[in-house]
Amino acid sequence: MGVPGNFADRAPAGLADTELFAVDAYRTSFDARVVEVDREGARLRLDRTAFYPTGGGQPHDTGTLATSDGTLEVTGVRRQDGLIWHSVAAESEALPDVGSEVGGEIEWSRRFQLMRTHTALHILCGVIWADHGIPVTGGNMEPLKGRLDFPFPAMSADLGAQVERRINEEIERAHEIVVDFLPRNVADADPALIRTAAHLIPAVIDPLRIIDIVGLDRQADGGTHVLSTAEVGRVRVTGTESKGKDNKRIRLEVADG
Fold first, then answer.
1. Quick one: which of 81, 79, 77 has its CA closest to 65?
2. Integer angstrom CA distances of residue 94 from 68, 71, 78, 136
3. What angle do CA 165, 168, 172 make, to 5 degrees?
4. CB 60, CB 78: distance < 8 Å
5. Distance of alpha carbon 49 from alpha carbon 87, whole angstroms
6. 43 burial class (0-12, 13-18, 19+ CB within 10 angstroms)?
7. 111-255 topology per CATH
8. What is the pLDDT averaged over residues 97-104?
């Protein structure tokens, strides 16, 4: 399992069999069956997938789907009305039929860069909460770059350097990273999750998937992460910006350690 945890009795029914990225971020290949084809939109829906769909500030995975007639490049993955669709670079006649078997392959270099980046942003959340008691209100990322917003009333000139030092200290501590699932009413009542502004997550999402950087940060999150903070590498804070009253932004980059 790509992210450890003992959650089999709490995860949504069938999730581990259909959304493989949710329980194993290190899985790069899988077999699946086509269950729906949108020929006009050049996209496919599969009975299970390891491709992460865009969401929660994390971009989608890319890779390929091998069919009996060739290989299709996966250029986009999105969730629509709860269903995951894979956009492919192909003409409509090249798309496989419903019921066809395909073999998926994730572009690992991109996936691992996003895993490292996402975990780095959670470390940033943990540091800001531990040192300032301030929750995160928004964020975004791309491979090896990301940013988070916090409701700081003001930012000191040396905050970026302080935060960078603290993030790298926590990386070096090699915190284990664990996944769990909690019923929504339990998660909403947990003071440890206040830092995530969990009320921003739609109420229909129940239970919540929780990512726990043990001893540092615990958040409701659906993305992919590394097994230990030691895998992140080295983080550099590249900028701090004021985006208005009570809205300050911190940008970071991830490099090899």
1. 77
2. 11, 10, 21, 44
3. 135
4. yes
5. 13
6. buried
7. Threonyl-tRNA Synthetase; Chain A, domain 2 (3.30.980)
8. 98
b/e code 94-107 from CB counts within 10 Å (16+ = b): ebbeeebebebbbb
Architecture of domain 15-106: Beta Barrel (2.40)
Q: Where are the domains of the chain?
A: 15-106, 111-255
Predicted TM-score (pTM) of this structure: 0.93
**In which residue are the tokens 């829906």 written?**
45
CA distance 196 to 219: 6
H and E: helices and strands count for the chain: 4, 13
> Helices in the chain by DSSP H: which ranges?
15-18, 108-132, 159-172, 184-188
pLDDT at 9 over 70: no
Give the pLDDT confidence of 220-248 residue by residue, as tens digits.
889 999 999 999 999 999 999 998 888 99
Nearest to 233 by CA among 143, 157, 160: 143
**Rounded CA separation 113/21 (Å):** 15
Computed over every residue of the chain, the mean pLDDT equals: 91
